[in-house]
Structure formats: C-alpha cells, structure tokens
Amino acid sequence: MGPDTAIDDLQQQIVRLEQRAVDFASALEDREAELDAARAANRELTRALNQRE
C-alpha cells in the first residue's frame, strides 16, 4: 500500500465520516422537532386539566 493509496483511503473515510455527521445532525433535528411537539402537547394537556378543576 503506497502513499497515494493511503491518502485515497483517508479521503474516502473523511467523506464517509462527513456524511455520518450530516446524517446525525439531521436525525438530531428530527428528534428536537418531535420533542418540541411533545412538549407543546404536554402543555396543552396540562392547561386543559387545570381548567377542569
């Protein structure tokens, strides 16, 4: 394995890791949106329950 092959392998690994980082960031955004929606629903349910008392 020569230097050129090692460099190519490292560049390919960088590309794969960058794609994983993008995928993780996207998944995190999705989870944050789901969490925000759950929090909003929880606030509404709590408000509704408090109004019934």
Can you lay out the helices and strands and say which pair or pack?
Blueprint: H1 3-52
Please explain how this structure is put together.
This protein is mainly α and 53 residues long. The chain contains one helix and no strands. It has one helix at 3-52. The N and C termini lie far apart (75 Å). 0% of the residues are buried. The model has no long low-confidence stretch (mean pLDDT 95).
Characteristic terms for this protein:
mainly alpha
Order of helices and strands: H
**Beta-strand share of residues:** under 5%
What's the Cα radius of gyration?
23 Å
Mean pLDDT: 95
Distance between the amino and carboxyl termini: 75 Å
Helix content: over 70%
In one word, what is the shape?
Answer: rod-shaped
Q: Treating each run of at least 4 consecutive H or I residues as one helix, how many helices?
A: 1
Q: Please identify the structural class as seen in this structure.
A: mainly alpha
**Mind describing the biggest β-sheet?**
none
Q: Outline the low-pLDDT stretches.
A: none
Number of strands: 0
Summarize the structure.
The chain has 53 residues and is mainly α. It is 94% helix and 0% strand.
